[in-house]
Amino acid sequence: MAYLLGIDTGGTYTDAVILQDEERVIASAKSLTTRHDLAEGIGKAAQAVLDESGVAAGEISMASLSTTLATNALVEGQGGKVALVFVGFRDGDLEKHGLSDALAGDPVLTLAGGHNHAGGEVAPLDMAALTAWVTGLDGVSAFAVAAQFATRNPSHELKVTEALRRLMGKPVSASHQLSAKLNGPKRALTAVLNARLIGMIDRLIQRAAEGLADLGVNAPLMVVRGDGALISADQAREKPIETILSGPAASIVGARWLTQAQNALVSDIGGTTTDVAVLRDGQPAIDPNGAQVGKYRTMVEAVAMRTTGLGGDSEVHFLSQGLRGGVFLGPRRVLPISLAAQIAPDVVHATLDQQLRTVLPSDFDGRFIRRMTIFGDAGLPARDLAVLDRITPDLQPMGQVIKTRIDIQAIARMVARGMVQIAALTPTDASHALGRTDVWDKEAAEKALLLFGRRRTGAGEMLSTQPAHMADIIIKQLTHQTALALLETAFAEETDDFEDVPNDVLARHVLTQRGLAQHRGLLKIDMGVNVPVIGLGASAPTYYPAVGDALGCQMILPEHAGVANAIGAVVGRVTFRASATITCPSEGQFRVHHGAAPVDFPNQAAAIEYLTHALGEQALHDAKSAGAEDIQLVTKQDIRKSTVESREVFVEGTITVEATGRPRIAH
To answer: Per-residue confidence at 379, pLDDT binned at 50, 70, 90?
Structure first.
């Protein structure tokens, strides 16, 4: 008999489950995620589930972790300061695939060098310029390196990587180690995001391991990858970008295990994001274009999932346009006022009461701020440091910190770096006011709702005068935005195209919305989702029945839906894929692009045999390093040929070897 411990660290809660032999859930528990020290929340959740199950810590055979930390960080624009070395590219390439936006002003060196599509050197690598540049850098937590056609010849990336590690002693992400595909700017984007996440994920895994060890859990620690497969903790530290969509991927694996559904939409609402995926024939699809999180399209293999900055802890924004006004939610996560009042009741209630006594409303009413002590102040300009000095680790009213409009921009930059945390009105507060949730401080939530409702619409009227009415407006907006997220996924995954009309346009189109409302006039318009929706997340039972009604579909809310991510963390398999390309630069020359440099062969069969063996060794090594047993190898070949003068000519071949096994269970 084996006991498996699954843990999911989300933006708001850390969930834990214990499964017996992957057959049944014998206990589950939740604890608040403690961002100042993730080990605290992990330890509390793990201890709670051990106590509930009666299983001793030493009896745990395997522990596995899924996390939304990387996903949330990219959605919210958080992470450490990085520097990019861009080898052999033009300056204009920085504007492709959102690379410049992802850098967000972080330093870039465009360096001479790079290779062509056949792996030949285009220009010598300018190492002197690299050495001169790095000596002037300050506050950089990690480096990203991307060279032109590095997947055809990685020698320049390898030289720059070795030099940066020697000179700076910082982690370096080389693009060719993250993807074997072409498209240099997109690989560079993936390397930049990987570098930005390294410190954050390393802290999470280290503290998770320490927290479990303190409890007496000494089983191997695994981490869920973005495609739902399991990898070792060390592998996740090296390539944290592969853990984007880790939590969502675990949720869809957990949804399949919980429901045995074959065809469905899976929607997982957390504190920060809503993640929507499709189950077809019982399997989650892998996104052929790479994982997309927020506005970034990466080269990371992951489940085909759409992530939206919408959750129970999404910030509520006021919309003054139009006579009636309204609200919009997200994409940033904030601390709910009801929770803030649990943490600092005297400060929160005294401030809210004082603001309610004030005749004129302020943009800072019902808003608080605190400093996150786990982050330093490296890389902040002097003006921002002056604002940071006014922010304490304890919650304080936002109005005490902000002296000018420029201060608002400084705080936005600090929020993006994870240096400070905002507390404000959220759907969670609305749920407390309506009696749907009873975990934190309902009275504080009602006061915050009253303050928010005092804002004036375009007609000059207050948005709302009653907490319950204001809460209802927020919950209806959450239902609407969730339905839109599901509709966009459904349109994107439809087998029939809609003449290249964007999915968000289709979801919001007047005919779609009238069809959902079952318009009846001269026209009869019906619209709905034609498969069940599996609702996951702790708050799914609170919010999702209305979503099912809005979409005219069956809403499945399985038992243990609130801990589906943690369940998916322990029922997955260890899977590694290694891929590389064979080209034909000239007749009778077959070039294998794998390893430190290209290798040429006189015929196609020899090249394929060599590459298949090399990739098999690589995938097998990775799977064994992750702790897999009973490993099976599957090889796929994609050989492209063309006909020239009635003769078939080899153009290019891609070989992929997949190694799959079950995770090793400690005995």
So the answer is: low
For the ranges 235-239, 284-288, 505-509, the maximum mean pLDDT occurs at 505-509
Strand-strand pairing, 574-586 and 314-319: unpaired
Pairing of strands 589-593, 420-424: unpaired
How big is the CA angle at 225 (ends 237 and 482), to the nearest 5 degrees?
120
478 has a pLDDT exceeding 70 = yes
Rounded (5°) CA angle 369-375-376: 105
Average pLDDT over every residue of 453-475: 91
Q: Alpha-carbon torsion 49, 51, 54, 59, what sign?
A: positive
Q: Considering only CA atoms, which of 233, 234, 213, 210 is closest in space to residue 223?
A: 233
Among left, alpha and beta (phi > 0; psi -120 to 50; other), residue 118 is alpha
> Whose structure tokens read 């991510």?
565
3-state helix, strand, coil in the chain (%, to 5): 40, 25, 35
Rg of the chain over Cα atoms, rounded to whole angstroms, equals 26
- Residues 9-36: what's their mean pLDDT? 86
What is the structure's pLDDT at 449? 98
The C-alpha atoms of residue 597 and residue 153 are separated, in whole angstroms, by 5
Helix ranges (DSSP H) in 150-294: 155-168, 184-215, 233-238, 246-259
In angstroms, the CA 452 to CA 446 distance is 10
* Rounded average pLDDT over 204-222: 88
Rounded Cα distance between 340 and 445, Å, is 10
Distance (Å, rounded) from C-alpha 299 to C-alpha 288? Answer: 9
Pairing of strands 172-174, 221-224: unpaired
Residue 102 has pLDDT above 80, yes or no: yes
Rounded CA-CA distance 581/223 in Å is 29
Q: Are 20 and 28 in contact (CB under 8 A)?
A: no
Tokens standing for residue 617: 């060794």
What whole-number distance in Å separates Cα of residue 164 and Cα of residue 539? Answer: 46
The pLDDT value recorded for residue 375 is 54
| pLDDT score of 37 | 73
Report the distance separating Cα 68 and Cα 270, nearest Å. 9
Burial of 166 (0-12, 13-18, 19+ CB in 10 A): exposed
Cα–chain center distance at 274: 11
Residue 599, strand partner residues: 592
User: Is 455 in a helix, a strand, or coil?
Assistant: coil
pLDDT of residue 271: 86
Task: Give the integer Cα–Cα distance in Å for 169 and 162.
Answer: 10
Q: Considering only 3-12, 70-79, 231-240, 499-508, which range has the smallest mean pLDDT? A: 70-79
Strands 274-280, 305-308: pairing kind: antiparallel
Query: CA angle, 60 as apex, 59 and 66 as ends, to 5°?
Result: 170
Contact indicator for 428, 312 with CB cutoff of 8 Å: yes
Look at 10 and 516; give whichever has higher pLDDT: 516
C-alpha 249 chain-centroid distance: 10
- The CA distance from 87 to 109, in Å, is 8
The bridge status of strand 533-536 relative to strand 274-280 is: unpaired
Helix/strand/coil for 119: coil
DSSP 43-108: HHHHHHHHHHHT--GGGEEEEEEEESHHHHHHHHT----EEEEEES--GGGGGGGGHHHHHTT--E
pLDDT of 134-174, one tens digit each? 988 888 889 999 999 999 999 999 999 999 999 999 899 99
Q: Largest Cα–Cα distance in the chain? A: 87
Confidence of residue 287 (pLDDT cuts 50, 70, 90): confident
Q: Say whether 485 sits in a helix, a strand or coil.
A: helix
Give me the mean pLDDT over the 300-316 stretch: 88
Question: Which of 154, 135, 136, 140 lies closest to 196, judged by CA?
Answer: 140
Q: Which two tokens stand for residue 481?
A: 């935005």
